[in-house]
Amino acid sequence: MSTPNLKIENLRVSIEDKEIIKGLNLEINGGEIHAIMGPNGTGKSTLSSALMGHPKYEVTEGNVTFDGKDLFEMEVDERAKAGLFLAMQYPSEVSGITNADFLRSAINARREEGQEISLMKFIRELDKKMELLEMDSSFAHRYLNEGFSGGEKKRNEILQLMMIEPKIAILDEIDSGLDIDALKVVAKGVNEMRNPEFGCLIITHYQRLLNYITPDKVHVMMQGRIVKSGGPELAQRLEAEGYDWIKEELGIEDETVGQEA
Ligand SMILES: Nc1ncnc2c1ncn2[C@@H]1O[C@H](COP(=O)(O)OP(=O)(O)OP(=O)(O)O)[C@@H](O)[C@H]1O
């Protein structure tokens, strides 16, 4: 099996004629965990929305390939089937479909006909992963995300990740609204996924999550592009000193994407 690969080259994305992503390059391979950090409004969420194919986000330039295939030529469900996990691809609340039903059909959507996961194996895996994520077994039988608290939804997102076993995952603000115990549990789930067949991009505001998930690479996004990359020590410096030193280093006067440097 070849190593999973997501390659973003010179990506430019606009919303309503306003350019938000301005020439972004990033490559994620299996076995790697990357983190993107950056001030508010620099285009971090726009990046994940564009990759998931949100119709409001217009890709004006650049290429994105997933395992060598043009991502933007693939339908959103094809992207998931091929092994790209974007949390936003999955419905936030669905009445009448239980969490377990949803997970089983999402797993089977990635398998060939006749290779569907058996009910026994599915239940075994689900039990194991829910235990690891310290989730009460009743969550399996509740309607998808209905009435889940913010923290429970995030935990459920990690359960989806662990059950679906994608090749590459993009986790946008997975740490928002989590208390410290939930944060540790979410980190435990992502760490459990670490293997050469899995690559991950974590979009986060706080270095806090990165105390529990050590990224291989940290990227700083400003004004719609990656302006600095480094190792975990970069995230620690950002936590301690903020972004001003990078702006000074690069001669950036204003971090809002609406204005040119
Ligand atoms: N649907 C939209 N319509 C209009 N403007 C948008 C839309 N989505 C994003 N923007 C604008 O694009 C810019 C980048 O937003 P984005 O959410 O990608 O930033 P971010 O880096 O994720 O910010 P934060 O750290 O605050 O979550 C912002 O100025 C935002 O107002």
From TrEMBL:
It holds the Pfam family ABC_tran. Gene3D superfamilies: P-loop containing nucleotide triphosphate hydrolases. Residues 6-248 form the ABC transporter domain. One of its GO terms (molecular function) is ATP hydrolysis activity. Belongs to the ABC transporter superfamily. Ycf16 family. PANTHER family: ABC TRANSPORTER I FAMILY MEMBER 6, CHLOROPLASTIC. This is Fe-S cluster assembly ATPase SufC. It comes from Fictibacillus enclensis.
